[in-house]
Design goal:
heterodimer; A: about 500 residues; alpha+beta; Alpha-Beta Plaits; five-stranded mixed β-sheet; two-stranded antiparallel ribbon; 17 strands; globular; B: about 375 residues; six-stranded mixed barrel; 10 helices
Chain lengths: ~500, ~375
């Protein structure tokens, strides 16, 4: 057993209102720079939709992530041989138009336009060239089903749906949409890291955050191809790749990452997961349908004596173990079984988990009347508003039974709470629902509290950083002293 | 002045009688609007504009609550760097923005402890309810602009707003009514949806009722505008945007990047097909009131026959010239709209119904209208 510690996340999609406050916080903090204008380390996508960059989920286009190769896996569009062959001509790279050409407006015109019959208006200009542009796309161009004929209808996750099933999703009376906020998944088997020919990408030992060393990066951009989530971006100004750093300078001082701090819907949870690094390869060299269960089996119970012993051997500090035992992510993912990884079939083992949306029917048509009676709100009907195959394509590599199980549990918690607070559902029915989904009343109440009422320290359990260990790695301890307080020994440089 | 809500005038007109037609005596504040005499010294308009006048000493009022603040006004006069002397009189200065902000913060019942207490006492006097539990703990609590610069501050409890927010509680409207059994500002003092007013009975709206939206001919916004080329008529709605109320923050570069660079015109997939337009094509929406040039946002979320333009776009960015209106620059969403009043919206002075332009009235449906939409040929800024 090779125990390692991973900072991981849960996003509760039923709570996301799609406000993009997370994106704004991240953009203001990290990517409000030349060369990074088009980057949104955190972005929010409307589903169904094609996302950002355009159709990122379609690996026939971008060739990201891993594919099985015997009892191992190999990168689809990068790696040792393949990577070298495409080094100077990589046709699977998203171009700026696949993201969007960033723009601003010629605001000066409002002040210095010559006299005329009409008030002046500021025209859009490209932030890349400075020339006038006709805006064609943006980081959330398909927001709220904008441009549905071109975007939502071409969602790659519709692949297993019949044409009539797809069509019915765009009928006004039964259509649905939900939001999927995305950041770097800080994967256990990162495609970006494996693809880098310069060895510039590394996964931090203490918390598993995946980072690009800006001094070592040579701008080959194979990480951009290697990451199936398209969460590594190329900065055209510095000539280096950049990505979400999970706000590690904030985490190291017990602050919550900016996107999570600002989340209006309080959908985000962060905490430690322990995993067994020895089992990574065998967990992904398997058929798609087994991927989620295999991934969940990688994570180790922080209260198990054997795990504790091996964690000690691996040098995991006690503070991390304590945090792991309080981790809300452990609860959502393992104890309660409510959160699933996004696109596990890319085989990078992402550490950002999503609680899938219930999307209950809010009303039904009865005898030509629009009825909003609550009878069928959370009914586990055979006619779900969102086809199970769609959610399964997103969250369980096509294995519908896994998603259905999660939704049943979520529904039974709601039924139970409705019986408690409103009382129009009998306790007997609620208990039967809970029993069939395999959770007790106490756990249902705990899920309810963590979902609806949880305070800051419950939602974010950040282990103490052990700066003394970082100091130990230095040859001279005076280096740290010199680095702290009076500027840098070596100033960070831009460019190659 | 209108017969205002929160005043005694709101029980003055249970029936429709027009003093103008001699049906009743003209009594200001009862059978007609209130008349207030205001004297102006037009030689001192600027001085008055930059100074806080003494009338505020005796009463600050809002939502039926009144309190005195003469002592606080006098304290402002002691703040010598911020006083204007006009003739023989001194006045607190509100000539620059920070002075004006500080004047508001100093005299508001939600930012100054003593004034919060006075407002709560006034509410207790009117309602006979003991509000001592929600009195501010610290009478001296106050903050000014520099405090707000350094960090956000919590507001104090005030009955001018109906939510309880003492002890760090988050504001939620009407909690003063529900938890202290303070009467609601209605005829019965309870939440009620029935109104026995003559005008509402005549309109069949004494209880909430569904009525079909008015047809285009009734609204009359398309009498002069003719279709040019391939054009369709759509019902135009102008609700608040996803990320802004009116223009607030809507025109920042960041938010425009997240909002397609402008306020588009959302139309249904079917109407778009009929018009031969694809998503992001330039279109112009026009009627007798005006024209708005923007891009189409084609979405399955929009029902056929309807288009939605969030309000309010500014003409300061991405506003091209209109083709149907011979090259003049297109306007905003409100270029297409006007107020369509039903007569019963003007009835009032009774119960919770009071006519007060742009303050007390229906939601924005009075602006709903019909427009013609066509694809633009060339786009000239």
């Amino acid at each position: 057993m090779d125990v390692r510690s991973q900072i991981s996340m849960v996003f509760h999609l039923d709570k996301c209102i799609g406000c993009h406050t997370c994106s704004i916080a991240c953009k203001n903090l990290w990517t409000d720079r030349k060369g990074a204008e088009y980057m949104w380390w955190n972005n929010v996508e409307t589903k169904p939709g094609t996302g950002y960059p355009f159709l990122w989920e379609d690996q026939n286009i971008y060739k990201g992530g891993w594919v099985p190769d015997g009892n191992k896996v190999k990168l689809r569009g990068a790696g040792k041989t393949k990577g070298m062959s495409v080094l100077f001509h990589n046709t699977n790279m998203p171009q700026i138009d696949n993201y969007y050409e960033p723009w601003t407006y010629k605001y000066e015109k409002l002040f210095d336009a010559p006299d005329g019959d009409e008030q002046p208006t500021a025209e859009p200009v490209s932030l890349l060239t400075g020339d006038k542009i006709s805006i064609k796309s943006g980081p959330n161009w398909d927001d709220d089903l904008s441009g549905s004929p071109l975007y939502a209808r071409n969602d790659p996750n519709f692949k297993n749906l019949s044409i009539p099933e797809r069509e019915s999703l765009f009928q006004l009376e039964r259509m649905m949409m939900f939001y999927v906020p995305r950041i770097c998944n800080h994967c256990l088997n990162p495609g970006c890291l494996a693809a880098c020919p310069s060895g510039a990408i590394y996964k931090r030992g203490e918390d598993g955050i995946v980072l690009v060393n800006q001094k070592v990066c040579r701008g080959w951009r194979l990480c951009v191809t290697g990451c199936p989530y398209k969460k590594v971006y190329f900065n055209w100004k510095t000539g280096k790749s950049e990505k979400c750093i999970l706000c590690f300078p904030r985490l190291e001082t017990q602050q919550v990452p900016a996107c999570m701090h600002t989340c209006v819907g309080r959908i985000r949870y962060l905490g430690v997961l322990l995993y067994d690094a020895e089992k990574i390869v065998e967990s992904i060299a398997c058929p798609d349908k087994d991927l989620v269960r295999n991934q969940l089996n990688l994570y180790l119970d922080p209260s198990d004596p054997e795990v504790i012993l091996n964690a000690k051997k691996a040098g995991i500090p006690e503070s991390t173990m304590t945090a792991a035992r309080k981790s809300p992510v452990w609860k959502f993912v393992k104890e309660w079984g409510l959160a699933l990884p996004i696109h596990p079939e890319y085989r990078t083992i992402p550490n950002l988990f999503y609680v899938p949306p219930l999307l209950p029917y809010m009303a039904t048509m009865e005898n030509d009347l629009y009825s909003t009676t609550t009878g069928n709100f959370f009914d586990d009907s055979e006619n779900p508003r969102l086809p199970m195959e769609y959610l399964a394509s997103l969250f369980s590599a096509g294995n519908s039974s896994i998603v259905l199980e999660v939704l049943r549990r979520l529904r039974s918690v709601r039924t139970h709470r409705r019986a408690v607070t409103v009382g129009d559902i009998t306790g007997v029915k609620a208990d039967a629902d809970l029993k069939s989904s395999g959770i007790s009343r106490e756990v249902a109440d705990e899920i309810f509290r963590m979902t609806a009422l949880a305070h800051w320290p419950d939602r974010f359990v950040i282990p103490s950083s052990h700066r003394e260990e970082a100091t130990d790695l230095l040859e001279k301890t005076s280096t740290r002293r010199e680095n702290a307080g009076f500027g840098f020994l070596e100033k960070p440089k831009r460019g190659l | 002045m209108p017969l205002d809500h929160y005043t005694r005038a709101e029980i003055s007109q249970p029936e429709i009688k027009d003093w103008f037609k001699g049906e009743c005596e003209a009594i200001p504040g009862k059978t007609m609007h209130r008349i207030v005499t205001i004297e102006r010294d037009y030689t001192k308009i600027h001085e008055k504009f930059i100074s806080l006048g003494g009338n505020v000493r005796e009463s600050i009022a809002g939502h039926g609550i009144t309190f005195k603040c003469d002592d606080f006004y006098d304290l402002m006069l002691k703040n010598k760097g911020h006083v204007n002397v006009i003739g023989n009189e001194s006045y607190p200065s509100i000539s620059d923005d920070i002075e004006a902000i500080n004047a508001v913060l100093f005299l508001s019942s939600v930012t100054t402890g003593v004034l919060s207490r006075r407002a709560i006492e006034d509410a207790g006097k009117h309602s006979g309810i003991d509000f001592s539990k929600v009195m501010p703990v610290n009478n001296e609590a106050t903050f000014d602009y520099s405090d707000l610069m350094s960090q956000p501050r919590r507001l104090l409890q005030s009955p001018i707003w109906s939510g309880l927010m003492n002890n760090g509680r988050a504001y939620s409207g009407f909690t003063m009514n529900t938890e202290f059994l303070m009467p609601w500002r209605t005829l019965t003092g309870r939440q009620h949806i029935y109104l026995d007013h003559e005008a509402y009975i005549l309109f069949g709206e004494n209880l909430p009722a569904y009525k079909h939206p008015p047809l285009p001919a009734l609204l009359g916004d398309l009498r002069k505008s003719a279709a040019e080329g391939k054009t369709i008529m759509l019902n135009a709605l102008t609700p608040h945007g996803k990320w802004h109320i009116h223009t607030t923050f809507g025109d920042t570069q960041r938010m425009l990047v997240l909002s397609r660079g402008m306020e588009p015109c959302w139309i249904s997939e079917k109407d778009a097909e009929e018009l031969g337009i694809t998503d992001n094509d330039w279109v112009e929406a026009f009627n007798d009131n005006g024209v708005y040039c923007t891009r189409a946002c084609v979405s399955s979320r929009i029902p056929k026959g309807v288009c939605i333009i969030y309000h309010a776009p500014e003409r300061t960015y991405s506003a091209p010239r209109s083709e149907v209106r011979k090259g003049i620059r297109g306007g905003g969403h409100n270029s297409l709209t006007r107020l369509h009043f039903k007569p019963n919206l003007l009835a009032g002075g009774y119960g919770q119904f009071t006519y007060h332009q742009n303050y007390w009235g229906p939601v924005g449906v009075t602006r709903d209208t019909y427009v013609l939409i066509r694809k633009m040929g060339s786009v000239v800024f």
